[in-house]
Amino acid sequence: MSQVRLDQVTKSFGSVAVIPPLDLVIADKEFVVLVGPSGCGKTTTLRMIAGLEQATSGEIRIGERDVTTLRPGLRNCSMVFQNYALYPHMTVAENIGYGMKVRGTPKADINTAVANAARILNLGAYLNRKPSALSGGQRQRVAIGRAIVRQPDVFLFDEPLSNLDAKLRIEMRTEIKLLHRRLQTTIVYVTHDQVEAMTMADRVVVMNQGRIEQAADPITLYESPKNLFVAAFIGAPSMNFVEGRLEADDGGVVFRAEGGVAIAVPARVAEHVSAGIGQAVVLGIRPEHTMTVDPAFPTIRVEVADIEPLGPHTLAIGKAGASAFTAQIHAASRVRPEDTIEVPIDPEKMHFFLKSTGEALKHR
Question: How do strand 186-191 and strand 31-35 relate by DSSP bridges?
Fold first, then answer.
């Protein structure tokens, strides 16, 4: 079993605590992505699992073993780095099999393992080439092949696609997902790219300042963010936020904000956000939830500053009252900069957060 467990793990560099007590359980064969902005602690957490950084306190377990103080080579983890770390003077085959060679593995076994990794990763035609003769995506596959031949309990990926162009990143995302299905091995993957996290993971762990803000499957993160940080980080373009207040109004609830913004909250939604009545709140609505036209939907007035045509739809970027606002509108729309438009809002997709704490009032 290749479960990974972190119990009250901390990390400090001198007097600076970068990881406060952190608890995380990664199930056997699960693909978990640690995501967050630069400096949030995700790579430090990965390096502690690998043994490349020593935890200041707490316990790290892989399967049934306590590996907290074990050196990296004894943890049976394989790590794939951002910069490939290939030996330029060695062929693809030699790079893949190098770790086995230094451990004294018989040559016949090395050849078998290298051939198997090449088959899985479609590298058979490149085994005699040097890294300089490969594309970025092929080099990354070689780095993954070197990890595969170790037959590790856990694969650790540290932003492996950040050096690739956009097209190659999409291709490699697919290849890594297929690899996970074939090998059925636990994967812990670090990225700052939330699209990468959402498209690859069984479960996404959103980190901020060394803490876990929310850990859930991608759809739950998207539909039910726990707080303002997660809501802002997950989704592209980012969720719109409008500051205002929830007020009781003639037996119902209304959200009011500067600039004459007033949106009636549907009864089904209102019953979940009643704790916020009379308080300063933040309304969150994603741009993609502003395009469906329904005469029953409430609207918000947006002063358009710019237009971004994206093919299947267009983004209208501007302000709603005093708040920045991006609406997704139909590609055929004739909206232009400096226009003022009424943007429909799907009331079932509204999120409300307490301004004082950032915590969500409503969970779907």
Answer: parallel
Beta bridge partner(s), residue 340? 303
Architecture of domain 4-232: 3-Layer(aba) Sandwich (3.40)
Burial 51-69 (b: 16+ CB within 10 A, else e): bbbebeebebebeeeebbe
Distances (CA, A) of 294 to 14, 146, 193, 352, 354: 58, 55, 34, 22, 28
**What is the per-residue pLDDT for 362?**
67
Domain ranges of the chain: 4-232, 237-354
Burial of 88 per CB tally in 10 Å (0-12, 13-18, 19+) = exposed
- Predicted confidence (pLDDT) at residue 207 exceeds the cutoff of 60: yes
* Cα torsion angle, 109, 115, 117, 123, sign: positive
Relative to beta strand 154-158, strand 4-13 is: unpaired
Structure token digits, residue 137: 């995506």
In angstroms, rounded to a whole number, what is the distance separating the alpha carbons of residues 203 and 165?
A: 25
Mean pLDDT across the stretch 175-183? 89
Type of residue numbered 145: G
